[in-house]
Amino acid sequence: MTLNPYFQRAEDKRTRLLSYIDTYIKMHGYPPTMREMAKFLSTCIGGIQFHLNKMRKDRLLTWEYNKPRTLKLLQPVGA
After folding, report:
1. 8 burial class (0-12, 13-18, 19+ CB within 10 angstroms)?
2. Which pLDDT belongs to residue 28?
3. Closest listed residue to residue 11, CA positions, set 53, 62, 61, 51
4. Contacts of 30 (CB under 8 A, 6+ apart)
5. C-alpha to C-alpha distance for 30 and 73, rounded to whole angstroms
6. CA nearest 26: which of 73, 79, 74?
7. DSSP designation for 58
8. Which mean pLDDT values do the consecutive 10-residue runs of the chain (79 residues) have?
9. Which of 7, 31, 59, 70 pairs as cysteine with 64 (C-beta 3.0–4.6 A)?
10. Alpha helices, DSSP H only, in the chain?
């Protein structure tokens, strides 16, 4: 079964975003801001929120509401 090209691009963006978050945390010791993630994907903050909510629903990551830089990856990247 092949994915619709739109959904394939969205999955590619989520994969890139997860990898970026993982690398950023390893380099800095804390997760990136929404603006940093938006700049990385060349998208708006609303686009980042959409992808983060989807990844949270898929149990790939989590965060504490209304607290900055609390993203936590729940699975190793590439697993």
Report:
1. exposed
2. 97
3. 51
4. 69
5. 11
6. 73
7. T
8. 60 92 96 96 94 95 93 84
9. 70
10. 5-28, 34-41, 45-57
pLDDT at 73: 95
Residue 77's pLDDT is 82
| Tokens 């898929």 found at | 58
Look up residue 37 and give its two tokens: 């993630």
Work out the number of other CB atoms within 10 angstroms of the CB of residue 21: 23
Rounded CA gap, 79 and 69, in Å?
Answer: 23
Q: Read off the tokens for 45.
A: 């903050």
